[in-house]
Structures are given as structure tokens and as C-alpha cells.
Amino acid sequence: MGNEVANDTARLAAFEARIARGEKIEPGDWMPDRYRKQLIRMISQHAHSEIVGMLPEGAWITRAPSLRRKMVLLAKVQDEAGHGQYLYHAAETLGATREEMLEALLDGRAKYASVFNYPTLTWADVAVIGWLVDGAAIKNQTMLAQCSYGPYSRAMVRICAEEGFHMKQGKEMCILYAQGTPEQKRMVQDAIERWWWPTLMMFGLPDDESTNSEILLRWGVKTKTNDTLRQEFVNEMVPQIQVLGLAIPDPDLYYDEASENWIYGEINWDEFWQVVKGDGPCNEERLGARRQAHEEGQWVREAVAAYAEKQISVQGEQGVPA
Amino acid sequence: MSPEMQQVLAEKLLSMADDELVLAHRNSEWTGHAPILEEDIAFTNIALDEMGHARIWYGLHQELTGIDPDEAIYFREPRAYRNARLLELPRGDWAFSLVRQYFFDVFEMVRAERLLESAYRPLAEAAAKIRPEELYHYRHTHTWLQRLGLGTDESSRRTQSAVDALWPHVFQLFEPLPGEEVLVNAGFVPESIALETAWKKIIQEALAGAGLHMPAQPAASPGGRTEHTAHLADLLAEMQGVARANPGAEW
Amino acid sequence: MGAPDTQWPRYEVFQQTRPGGRYQNVGSVHAPDPEIALQNARDVFVRRPQTVSLWVVPAGEILARTREELEKDPSWRRPAPPPAGATEKVYHVFQKRSQRRSMGYVTHSGEVRAANRDQALLRAWEQFGEGPVFVWWIVPAGAITSSEEADVASMFQPAQDKSYRLPGVYHTRTLMREAKKQQEEDKA
Lengths: 322, 251, 188
What we know:
Chain A is mainly α. Chain A contains twelve helices and two strands, in the order H-H-H-H-H-H-H-H-H-E-E-H-H-H. The radius of gyration of chain A is 22 Å and the shape is globular. Chain C contains six helices and eight strands. Chain C has helices spanning 34-45, 67-72, 117-128, 152-156, 158-161, 172-187, and strands at 10-16, 24-30, 53-58, 63-66, 89-96, 107-114, 135-140, 145-146. In chain C, 37% of the residues are buried.
């Protein structure tokens, strides 16, 4: 018993030393159970967020008001499927299976970013989601690209490269609509008012309430705290939104000269918890859509698998190596 | 080019563009809802390719008529659309959409091959660009047709149902537009009957290989592309809503 | 939930970005068979340039070892002798040799001939083991399904045309600068 404890202590020290040296932990390397479990949780939630996140914007593909916007939005939503794919792969390297992960999502047991439980009410929502929500995601993902776990880091690097256009296409639309017809300007202002606070909540709980932060920082999974990233985001976004003549729905927002920060008002964490727990405006609708797609697709997945099996047994009979 | 020929050519290009647009729109309804993640991405790619083709044909139409593509797409009534009815039908189940895409891919592949030699340079150049993409579409949907046809009893049943349901509509693809003979005689577009023969040959082999029956030739004539089902009006109402609510706005 | 779901088996994907370049592992796809695996690999990993060739390999066929694993259990240095008369086959050797951040994982280093994967690992170490190697992958050549050169146009060219997927075509900096100028003019 004493030897096991000594071994684990030594292994943990070696593991943490590797991370401190900037080495990536790869599939097959020893890792503390808590590291593995935390990463499976984080990565699968991230993957689920991408998949569920296809739906709020996906609903507008058929209603995009120009052919170019239609193609751009379709490509963006397709990227999100791709991002989910890369992330499920990263979780699979830790021993999770896609069957299990999807079952957990569709059963309602798994979490995903609550920002995707809000409805997209107008075309301008698509513009604002691109600029704000993807902008916030990029901040988070840029940080995670330095993550100590190899597969997650690599997925993040690929995602960051692709996400750039997501933010820019949204920003382009916001700039255009803010300077467009009165109706367009009103539409984008309305969208900003509905998406500003959910976007800020994307950075997670305040540092003093975030229980996992300390261990995630020590093990190189995170490199910045929630509040740090959130403040950086606010500082970048506020001046730009104001340049467009749009208002931020925060009456307490002010610029503090001393810290050079835009100080924002209280976040309504009650709303956050409601949405996280499943009582948000669209939670049921989002999961319902995913469940329906999954169930209706079952015969398809089975058919293609059955065909493959038939080929293998036919080759077996013919003495051809499978 | 005579004004009459120009008019027929413009109408032909518009019908080609409308085909791609309407089909791509239907396919995009699967994004986020496909049977498995990888296929969601793959089928969306096909939709993106088709939208790209639509953009090309609307562009060629604009060269002849001066009509802006977005103007044509968002501000035309259903009766002014020139797509084949096959493409406006609702997406149905996965087998329905897959088989429809397959039928259209074979059609586009045999046509693109012949358009490479079109005497109308813009068409030949466009075909050169489009053909590699159509080859990939064909590869994809042919692969899936086999697997669905031979996979399980359920998939075979659903795929046969899809073939049967789509068959009465498919031959409108080979119905020449009014006045199309002038384009054929000028070597601008291939003769429809040649396309139909080539298409049928490929389909016959593919269906047999996938354990499916080829239905009998429909007795009724498909009719012209000015006639649409109620589905097109629903589709366009959704597609055009935002643009029509804000005419003159730039998006 | 009803009957258990199948998400299909996994295939690892290797990408070659230019003719003669080294294949690199970029991720995996779920697929029921090699043909769909190849198509899925193209649709998942080649939405943007630049690719000239793809390989897909059933994940289970690959022998993967990290440096730490090899140090911990040295039995790989004495693999069981293969049965008499066993034929030698080609095995591709992939390695991770850098800790630099990147999108891709192990990169192709070369080939060895061996009777089985374990023997191939030993020979790979003998041939390609100079310098630090963090991860080894041994991939049987017979397990690889490759894209064909004749298909480069249909498989990989279409990605070139979809410039709307690239950030550079959205001129937000210019647009923002102009908006700022307009705001200053309006104030004046």
C-alpha cells in the first residue's frame, strides 16, 4: 500500500514536471484520473456545444436574404459540425466513445454551452452571434490551444484557424447593418441587446465561484481565468460596438481610467443557472431536434454498417483477406 | 446571337440555376439533422457545391439579361421559377433525399461531360469547373445508393419507395424547354434525348447493382417548367421572406 | 433509448499537403468501410486547401506507443519471434518529434519491413530512433486505403474555390476604420 502511494506521488510529480516543461501529454501517457475525467467532461461538453450550436443559426440558412450570405452561413454551420467532430475525436483518445457521449447528450445528462439555448429571432441574430459569440469562443479557444493535452490542443489549433472567418463574417454584417436602413439598424441593436449578456456568461462563473479553475490551471488545461478572459473580451468589444452607433444593454457600464478596463454591471447568474439546468428558452427544443435526428437516422447507420459486414463475410467466403 | 436565341439561352440558364438553387436549399435543410456527423458535413458540402453552381448560372444569366442574381432569386414569384418539380419536393426521409440527389447527380454528370464541348464558351468554361465536383457527388451518392439498397430490409424498402416516388418526376429533367432546338442546333447544349439515354443506362445498372427495381416509364408527359407544385410557394416564402420585407436593403 | 447505437468504427486520417510531402495524421473519422472513410476524410479535413492525397487506416490496425510507454515497459525490445516462414510486409513509421504547437500529430518518417507490428516497432526504433521521439505509430501498409492521383481534381480542387471559408475575404478592419471616420465626421 505504501509503495503504491509513493508510486502515484512520484508519477504525479513527473506528470506535473512534464507539463511545466511545456511537454504535451499524449494518448498512452500516464495521467491522474482526475485529469482524464476533467478533460473528458470539458472536451465532450465542448463538442456537444458545437453540435447543438449548429441549430440556432442553422434555422436561418433557408431564410438568408442573399445567396452569398446563404453560402457563408451554410459553410459556417458546417464548420461547427466539423469542430464537434474534431472534439469528439479528442475525447475518444481518452477512452470515451461517441456512442456514450451522444447518449449522455440526448438523455439530458451532459452539459453544453448554455448560450445556445437562446432563440435566434431575426436575421441580425446571425450577424451578432458571429461577431459576439464566436468572438468570445475564439478568445477561449486561443487559450485552450496551449492546453497540455495533445489531442485537445491540436483540435483547438485547427478550430482557431477555421473560426476566424466565423467572427469576421458576423462582424462584417453588423457593420453593414448598423449603417444600413433604419430597419436593419434597429434589428442589429435589438440582437445585441439579447445576446450581450449570454455572451459574457460564456466565459463561465466568476473566478471566486469557479471550483475547477485551480487544478485546471496547474495542469495546464487553462492558462487564464474566466474573469481575465471576460474582461479582455469586454475591453475589445465595447469601443467597437459604440463606434457603430450601437448601444450596449448595460446601464452600469463605465470606463475606469486607472485600470484601463471597461467595468461592466452585475451578471444575472440566476438566469445562467436556470439555463444550465435546462430551463432556458430553447433547451427542450434544441435537444428535441437532436434526438429526432438521431432516432430518424438509426436505420441509416444500421444499414450502412450491415452492408459493411456483408462485404467482410463475402470476402471471408471467397478467401479474400478482409 | 439573335435576340430570339439569346432569350432561349437566358431561359435555359435560368432553369439550370433554379434547379441548383432549389435542390441546394432542400439539401441544406438536412444540415444539423443528418443521420451521422460525418454525413452531415458531406451532404452539406454537396449543397455548397450546388449553390456555387447556381451562382455561376445566375451569373451567366445576368450577362445576357442584366438581371442581378439576388434580384432573380429573392424577388421572383413561384410561377416565374424554372426549376424542375423533382427538386422542389420536400426532403422526405434520408432515402428520398439521397436518391433524388443521386438521380440529379447522374443527370448533371452526363450533361457536364457534353457541355465541355459547348459552342457557347461561357458554358464550356463553367462545365470544366463544375464537372470535377459533379464526379465527386456521383461517387458519394452512388456509394450510398448501394449501401442503402443492399444494407437491411428496412433500408432496401425505404430506398425502393424513394425510387418509386421520385420516378414520375425525374423525366421532366429531359424535357426540352420551348425553343431549345435552336440551342441544340447551335451546339450550345446537348440534345435532351441523348442525355436521357445516357442517364437511363447508368441508372439501370446502378439500381440493379443495389438490389432495386427500376419502375415503368411514366405514361403522362412531364409538362413544362412553368408548372409547379404548392411546395415551391412554401419554399420560396421561407427563402424570400427577409429580403422581401426589406426591399432595397443590402445584406 | 431503444437499440444500442452504432457510430461506426474509427479510421485514422493522414494528409499529404503537397506532392512528395510527408503524410501527417490530422484526426480520425467514423466510417463503416474504407470507401466511406476516404470520402468522409475528404469532407471533414479538406474543406480548405491544401491537400493532394489522403490515407485512411482502421484505428485498430495501428500500433501506437509514447516514449513514456516504451520506457516504462521495455518488453518491446524483445518481441516474440514470428512463426517460421512468416512473410515480411511493409510497415509505415510515423513519429512525433517536436513539442511545437501544431494541427497535425505524427508525421511519416519512412518504412520498415517486418513479419508483424511488434517486430516493425523494434526495426523502426533501430532505423529511425535517432534523437528525441515522443510518439511512435506503426501502420501496416496493407491497412491503408489511399486516394487516387486521378481523383485529385474531384476530391481536392473544389476546396480551392470556396474562398468564403477564409478570413481574408472579409475586410472588417477597413470597414471598421471607415465607420470610425464616419462617426468622427458626424460628431464634428
